[in-house]
Write a structure and sequence with these properties.
The complex is a heterodimer of chains A (about 180) and B (about 290). By secondary structure, chain A is an alpha+beta fold. Chain A has one domain: Ubiquitin Conjugating Enzyme (Roll). Chain A contains four helices and four strands, in the order αββββααα. Chain B has a six-stranded mixed sheet. The radius of gyration of chain B is 21 Å and the shape is globular. In chain B, helix 7 packs across helix 10, helix 10 packs across helix 11 and helix 10 packs across helix 13. Chain B has a single domain, classed as Peptidase C65 Otubain, subdomain 2 (3 helical TM bundles of succinate and fumarate reductases). The chains are: A alpha+beta (about 180), B alpha+beta (about 290). At the A-B interface, helix 1 of A face helix 1, helix 3, helix 8 and helix 10 of B. Chain A: Keywords: ATP-binding, Nucleotide-binding, Transferase, Ubl conjugation pathway.
Chain lengths: ~180, ~290
């Protein structure tokens, strides 16, 4: 499904650099173009900065608003309390019809995260909808930390250990590498 | 989980490393998407108007009950217009039927009425906590189509252009998403009313249902979606059922159900509703029907 050819652009008509169409009813007046994705991402950034949700943050990389770096903190009273994880979010050109690709950049010992940082979460796959945004994605991942789905794990060792929270906490501490600031 | 694996396999670095297994997986994926694209090409988002004989042709070697039912349909309906069976067919059918109705009648009072309902829906979503930016583009695009089918402005579009736009993925998908937001907002707003239907349908909470069966693209519509959209916009919908069911008494008849917005039906005058939108339902799929 994802881009084997390394680009997402083929699904979306490129923005017309030649300026406005000669007559408005010749070309469809407003379509999904890069402009509307940019506007949406900028709104998301604004809303995320205004929301001040504790324990989550994200910001675009310097030169590319389609690539963001995010941070989530493990929630209190979970085995992830006190830990902090960096994530990468890359947005396709047909966002928000398709979800961003979200990966853990910091190693995370969790039933639904594999060794490459891939996350198994339905809202990032078949249950994605345009109603989600960066804020709700990060909040969902944050709550996934404390409430894993152990029935179809990516990390079977973590899934098996989950029932023993004390041992699990020790494992989290042992494997945790605090990301560089 | 399988999906995760495919994604990591499609990592270009892994492929460049000459891992033939990965190449094979990618080949299969490409092939799958090629097949999907080919199927999609056969049926556009919206087809041409076809006589009902085209429908009968599908069942020539099949069930005689269906052929008899199509004969009965032929008395009342002049044509069918197919939509692509990609899980969004109810919304795409609704979109085209409604805009075509406005284009043909130039009913400005109806446009004003539906706009007022759309504004209500906007407030509903805001009060439910949806961030404006998640839905405003979809609202904007629908309202624009609504204005464009009214003739006499620079932006007015012809019937042919409406068909063209309805076949344009970006426009059609935006309007589908608009309807999905409207539907979800209405269900959440009247959660108590919809809860028992939803429980009966798939044993989910209202929130789970909206998140997993209404808001994502490609999720099929059931009577819950139709009731909610029809109520929210105040647009009656008739659904004609074409299935193998028959009466025990031997007579074949074609059932239909009118979804009448609560705002209209509470008038209670037993008034004959003349729905703008008539859809043909065959298990799992909706197409557009044209009454004679």
């Amino acid at each position: 499904m994802a881009a084997m050819n390394g680009g997402y652009s083929d699904n979306t008509p490129a923005a017309d650099p030649a300026g406005p169409p000669a007559k408005q009813n010749v070309a469809p007046a407003k379509t999904v173009d890069t402009q509307s994705v940019l506007k949406r991402l900028q709104s998301e950034l604004m809303s995320l900065m205004m929301s001040g949700d504790p324990g989550i943050s994200a910001f675009p990389e310097e030169d590319n608003i389609f690539n963001w770096k995010g941070t989530i903190h493990g929630s209190k009273e979970t085995v992830f309390e006190g830990t902090e994880y960096k994530l990468s979010l890359s947005f396709p050109a047909d966002y928000p019809f398709k979800p961003p690709k979200v990966k853990f950049e910091t190693g995370c010992f969790h039933p639904n995260v594999d060794v490459f940082g891939n996350i198994c979460l339905d809202i990032l796959q078949d249950k994605w909808s345009s109603a989600y945004d960066v804020r709700t994605i990060l909040l969902s991942i944050q709550s996934l930390l404390g409430e894993p789905n152990t029935s179809s794990p990516l990390n079977t060792q973590a899934a098996a250990l989950w029932s023993n929270q004390e041992e699990y906490r020790k494992m989290v501490e042992k494997l945790y590498n605090k990301p560089a600031a | 989980m399988a999906k995760q694996q495919e994604e990591s396999n499609s990592n270009p670095a892994a492929a460049a490393a000459g891992d033939w297994e990965n190449f094979r997986d990618d080949d299969i994926m490409l092939q799958h998407s090629a097949i999907r694209a080919e199927q999609a090409d056969k049926i556009p988002f919206l087809g041409d108007k076809e006589p009902l004989s085209a429908l009968a042709a599908e069942y020539q070697s099949g069930s005689s009950i269906l052929l008899e039912k199509i004969k009965i349909l032929d008395e009342k309906y002049s044509a069918i217009r197919r939509t692509r069976g990609d899980g969004n067919c109810f919304f795409r059918s609704f979109m085209f039927s409604y805009l075509e109705h406005i284009l043909e009648t130039q009913d400005k009072a109806e446009v004003d009425r539906v706009k007022a309902n759309v504004e209500e829906c906007r407030k509903t979503l805001q009060s439910l906590g949806y961030a404006d930016f998640t839905f405003e583009d979809f609202f904007g695009l629908f309202l624009e189509q609504l204005e464009n089918v009214i003739q006499g402005t620079d932006a007015s579009i012809s019937h042919d252009e409406l068909v063209e736009r309805s076949r344009d993925q970006s426009i059609s998908d935006y309007v589908v998403m608009f309807f999905r937001f409207i539907t979800s907002g209405e269900i959440r707003k009247r959660a108590e009313f919809f809860e028992p239907f939803i429980l009966g349908l798939n044993n989910a909470t209202v929130d789970q249902f909206c998140k997993s069966s209404v808001e994502p693209m490609g999720e099929e519509s059931d009577h819950v979606h139709i009731i909610a959209l029809s109520d929210a916009l105040g647009v009656p919908v008739r659904v004609v059922y074409l299935d193998r069911s028959s009466c025990d008494t031997g007579g074949v008849s074609v059932n239909h159900h009118d979804f009448v917005p609560s705002a209209l039906s509470s008038g209670g005058s037993g008034l004959e509703i003349n729905p703008y939108i008539t859809l043909l339902y065959r298990p799992g799929h909706y197409d557009i029907l044209y009454p004679k």
